[in-house]
Amino acid sequence: MWKRIIKNMDWGIVVCIAILMTIGLVALFSATQGSGYEEFSKQLMWLGISLPITILVIFINYNTIAKVSPILYILMLISLVAVLFTDPINGATSWFTIGSASIQPAEFAKVITIIVLSAYIAKIQQNGKDEVSRFFKLIKCLLIVVVPMLLIIKQPDYGTAIAFFVATIAILFVAGIKKRYIFTGIILAIVLLPILYFYVLPEHAKTRIEVFLNPDLDPRGAGYNVIQSKLAIGAGEFLGMGILKGNQTQLGFLYPKTTDFIFAVIGEEMGFIIAATVIITYVILITKAIYIAKTSKDNLGSYIAAGIAGVFIFHMAENIGMTMGLLPITGVPLPFVSYGGSSLLTNFIMIGLLLNISGRRQKAIFVDQSI
To answer: Is the whole model's pTM more than 0.90, yes or no?
Structure first.
């Protein structure tokens, strides 16, 4: 069985992760010069922790993981409530601090919620594909996602909350939700966005949107980081300024350069070629995740893969987009590249699930959609 899984696994995914991790570690090494390479060293430590866990996830049947996911979901909700009572870090109560390590439960919540939602939809569809489009069952699907989303928004962490939303849309789309619900959701979003902006979003979130629309609005304040990021990417030109030689990176103008703006470090010091390589690698990775969703042997595997693809799509587009001033800043990390132990471990768990599903796949199961 193990030999068959290893043989059937999509090894192209492993190659993609190796490329992203290599580029990310080089960028982190450069970005932490002058600070004792502390974050670079911690990233290596988390990589060492992540690899054996990934191997474990690959060989435990994902159906077995889905069976225990309700317990993990309850523990996840408890942790998301508990973290709200911790001391704020940069204005957010998102981390448990254990010694020198910080654990962010919202990161693990993404993958747990994807598995629980996928398992629930797969279960109800045993009575028919249209079950997911029945109103009350659809409401239950949404509640599975909305509860952790609201707790994460309370921290506040809007970027991670949006990742939940994108993953949910991807899963429901693959599950064959009727198009009328999609159209209704789009209309509701259009109607509610102005209300959310004026009456729900805090001032700092509004400021980020305003700065996105006009970066020169506050060039020494809210718009400073994105302006420096664009300067760094532009300065790299085709081949880059060289590792350890980026002006914005090494002189401290780029912040936070190991997390939110790591792509700007890559653009400045490694140039357009490597920056484009990062984007192309993500596109290949996401395409492979979608193909695994299409060729999974069952609905459960398909939905999990689709949700993971949704998370990677959002993180890639949002992080790279915000460093170039194309999207508002949300603090979303770049998977496998940005510094962050919880993020790295969660991403490797999702890769383990993709390899798990790909090693057991047999046929395509995408369902037809109808009004």
So the answer is: yes
